Amino acid sequence: DAKTTQPNSMESNEEEPVHLPCNHSTISGTDYIHWYRQLPSQGPEYVIHGLTSNVNNRMASLAIAEDRKSSTLILHRATLRDAAVYYCILRDVGGSGAGSYQLTFGKGTKLSVIP
Amino acid sequence: ETGVTQTPRHLVMGMTNKKSLKCEQHLGHNAMYWYKQSAKKPLELMFVYNFKEQTENNSVPSRFSPECPNSSHLFLHLHTLQPEDSALYLCASSQDLLAGGLEQFFGPGTRLTVL
């Protein structure tokens, strides 16, 4: 399975933008890029996903490099509630079986938001 | 209630006990999942149900027995567990399994401790 690499931790000041990077140099053509986050004592929460084009939703933006070997999750204004571990995940949704359902979480990036 | 709920939130059981974890989703989804999250391991998919039918058993020991009576409810029956089974058990749901169930909604999890 294609792997992702993320920094272990990042800090941001409240109300400032946050750019969370993810490297996935072995990504395949049918791999979607997903981002989930997990707040303390909670289950993971879907944030956003994309394939090739940049994506925006109410929570965040996803910027995907032209060669798809890296991506960046952008939180436009960090709040204290955004303090969580953010996971960048590749999923080959064109496949079948458990591999296409599995959310393979790595260590993620622990984001701290400073008031 | 909205979203995905799980009960109990915390469970302590002995190795000879029998207990059940319950998951309920109020999202009208057709696919449901059980995941295990240990402190030192990434999230592991255990079981997948689609329209009440089990579609995946990811090599889970028989001491874990899932049950899906309808599309809204999912149970995980536990018996003769081992201390190494102590973990956070997460339930998730998605609209269906098309394209690998791109967006999964997670419950808060049940923190299980096996003594």
Protein architecture, described:
The complex is a heterodimer of chains A (115) and B (115). Chain A contains one helix and nine strands; from the N terminus they run E-E-E-E-E-E-E-E-H-E. Chain A has 115 residues and is mainly beta. In chain A, strands 1-9-8-3-4 form a five-stranded mixed β-sheet. Chain A has a four-stranded antiparallel β-sheet with strand order 2-7-6-5, with no helix packed on it. In chain A, strand 3 (31-38) and strand 4 form a beta hairpin. The mean pLDDT of chain A is 90. Chain B has 115 residues and is mostly beta strands. Chain B is 0% helix and 56% strand. Chain B has strands at residues 4-7, 10-13, 18-25, 31-37, 44-50, 53-57, 64-70, 73-79, 87-94, 105-106, 110-114. In chain B, strands 2, 4, 5, 6, 9, 10 and 11 form a seven-stranded mixed β-sheet that branches. Chain B has a four-stranded antiparallel β-sheet with strand order 1-3-8-7, with no helix packed on it. In chain B, a hairpin with a 2-residue loop joins strand 7 and strand 8 (73-79). Chain B starts with a strand and ends with a strand. Classes of the chains: A mainly beta (115), B mainly beta (115). The A-B interface holds A 32, 34, 41-46, 49, 91-95, 97-98, 100-106 and B 4, 33, 35, 42-43, 45, 48, 56, 58, 90, 92, 97, 99-109.
In short:
Chain A is mainly β and 115 residues long.
Report the biggest beta sheet of chain B as strand number plus sense, adding barrel if it closes. Answer: 7 strands, mixed
Largest sheet of chain A: 5 strands, mixed
Task: Indicate the radius of gyration of chain A in whole angstroms.
Answer: 14 Å
Low-confidence stretches of chain B: none
Number of H- or I-type helical stretches of chain A: 1
Secondary-structure element series of chain B: EEEEEEEEEEE
Strand order, main sheet of chain A: write it out: 1-9-8-3-4
* Count, helices of chain B: 0
- Contiguous runs where pLDDT drops below 50 for at least 5 residues of chain A: none
Q: Determine the fraction of residues in helical runs of chain A and give it as a percent range.
A: under 10%
Strand content of chain A: over 45%
Measured between the Cα atoms of the first and last residue of chain B, the distance is 33 Å
Written as H for each helix and E for each strand, in order along the chain, the element string of chain A is EEEEEEEEHE
- The chain-level mean pLDDT of chain A equals 90
Rounded to an integer in angstroms, the radius of gyration calculated over CA atoms of chain B is 13 Å
The number of strands of chain A is 9
